[in-house]
Amino acid sequence: MVLERSDGRDCWKTRRTIINVGSIGTAYGSALVRRGKTTIVCGVKGELANSRPENPGDGFLVVNLDLPPLCCPLFKPGPPSEQSQSISQFLNDIVTSSGCVVLSDLSIEGQLVWCLFVDIICLEYDGNVIDAAVLAMLAALTNTKLPKITVSNDNGEIKVSEALEILAVKSQPVTTTFVYQQDGGHVMVDPSFEEEYDAAGILSITLQEDGSLVKLYKPGGLQLPDSVLEQCIAKARSLSKDMWHLLKTVSETVET
Amino acid sequence: MANRLNCRVVLPGESISNFISGLVSDNFKTVLGPGLQRHSDEIVVTKCGILKYKKPNLVWVESHEKRYVPVRGEYVIGIITTKGSEVVRADIGAGDSAVLSLLSFEGATKRNKPNLQVGDLVYARVLVASKDMEPELVCVNSHGKSGELGVLPSSGFLFTVPLNLVRKILCPSCPLLKTLGERIPYEITAGANGRVWINANTIQNTLLVYNAISFAEHMTPEEVNIMCSEILHGNQEATLVTMLK
Amino acid sequence: MLSDNKENETQSIRTLSAELSNLSRPDGSAIVAQGDTVVQSAVYGPVEVRPNKELPDKAYFDIVYKPLTGLPGCPEKLRERVIRNTLEATLLVNLHPRKSINLILQEMQNDGGLLACCINSACMALMDAGLAMKCLVAALNAVITTEGDVLLDPSLKQEEEAKACFTFAFESINHEVITSNTQGSYSETEFKKCLEICRSASMKVFDFYRECVQRRFSKEIDR
User: Fold this and answer.
1) Residues 67-126 of B with CB under 8 A from C
2) SUPFAM superfamilies given for it (chain C) (predicted)?
3) How far apart are the C-alpha atoms of B68 and B124, rounded to whole Å?
4) What is the pLDDT of residues C87-115, one digit of tens each?
5) Domain with B102 in it: what CATH number?
6) Other chains touching A, judged by 3 or more CB pairs under 8 Å
7) Are the C-beta atoms of residues A44 and A117 closer than 8 Å to each other?
8) If exposure means fewest CB atoms within 10 Å of the residue's CB, which of A20, A32, A227, B80 is most exposed?
9) Nearest chain C Cα to B12, which residue?
10) Chains A and C touch (3+ CB pairs under 8 A)
């Protein structure tokens, strides 16, 4: 029996993904990602900072995700919710685990380094914010151009030149999220808001282009048989290919 | 086979269907008590503790608990927290406070209601205990008589113990309360919600009873017997040694 | 296959020790030490719920995780979320609608495998409180060293030097995965290897749970 979902998709089909990069002129890099109705905006801003003495020459990269009341009535104004904080941590973990941005690349000269703020805001919440946020973060970082900074040898004066340098992004982690309703039954990829809300469990698999896994995140919920887990990893592999293809097309269009 | 059995330690998730079918004969329907659930054909443990069996067909899990969850028909000690014209609220140590109608006392009428004060202790029976509703207490039995139920005298001493200890001392086979009574004149009211009220002739004796009950938690029946006989012979020092063991 | 089994045998977890009901006021408490990682947990419940957290069909399961120093930040919130969802899957929360079950975890000492120790400690506190549960849960930690070897239940130093770090939680009936969280990059084979090693080690944790309960009720069993 083929199970059909409320929006007519079959269980292993994701929604349409739209990526728009460089949409925010004031940021060093930016991207807007839509996954179905879920809309995520990501901007990269940078400021100059001194590196920590324990890791000299290492810059900083801070990812932060905001789920404002604007995107869903479930979220209340006030300090960041546990959900947004844990997704922020998830994104930070992905950056460190995959090494997509090497912190030593953010060094400028001596103690002076870049501190990059990757701010992600959800404009519309229709489930699966994790996948969209990872995609937005990656697209924005790939699109990031930092002004060249020179430090004069005589008086230590910092000069910001007009010339821009592209930020090196070393790998492309892509996350695929699944939900399931009973233990191991009715697995669905790319859940909508309702599917996510009713799910018995959620599973996010992050892969890199070389086929290695970066994060297999299953925060509790009902237990999952190994066979289903393997099936999900295999599906994530094939679905991630589409995302890498999409990211490649995006960067090619930007270049031309 | 013995009438009562403390079978073995069980943990949540364990299936005990086979075990039970060896215990309860096919002529009886098995009655599952606390800590057991039926999932289609299987009987699964939901609490960790000792699996107990009582002839002919009762099976339950006795576990360590401190928080009371109301059960219909159980006797509890409540503390009056708020007072209304028709009902009072009592704290019975559960998640919700319980409601006690002022008309559910012996001989109470609309005109002649008992005079309860905030802070009074009542020994009452749980009439309504549903997970979706707040519990309701009564201080009369089905014949409209108070029996032992009602307001407790203000002179006693109330303390809280784990629920399993109350069940232990109330068990007919436990010699503790009876043996204590042979030496010390005292009154006791033990609620299933872990509250125990005692009143003896002197403060020393009240404390002795209190200590004896508190220490009984981790004692085997034999050890309880030893402690009791020492109390019985008035050997305070030896009693203390046994208690502190 | 044989060589794999042999390897599993060499993998052992650090000494587990625990004390149940070590705090007198909470409804259930446990302090669990896994090597030098120590977590204290306490549970209250089912108790009255804050009106804005009330759920009509089940108990609200609240977790507070207290780090050793400082205020809880993003990493602690993620940990809190993982612990909550893991244990909520084992609790029969539908038995106590419109109530709240509160669990407090205090990190006492961290020498690696903190998340796993938190989950185990929380599970033991819930067992101690006599709350109804579907099954038990055991969490394990493993790393892949830079040489590519799997190391079960590493210390904090080994964890920091490792190429990848895994935390898994298994349920006690079919030993299926409830929780998985990983750090660093690794291949699928490495993942499966770690999963299996942790799964077989989870039996030791379940045995330990049984041993603790057995010790506690030892005086009350008929012999």
Assistant:
1) 67, 69, 94-96
2) Ribonuclease PH domain 2-like, Ribosomal protein S5 domain 2-like
3) 15
4) 999 999 999 999 999 999 999 999 999 99
5) 2.40.50.140
6) C
7) yes
8) A227
9) C135
10) yes
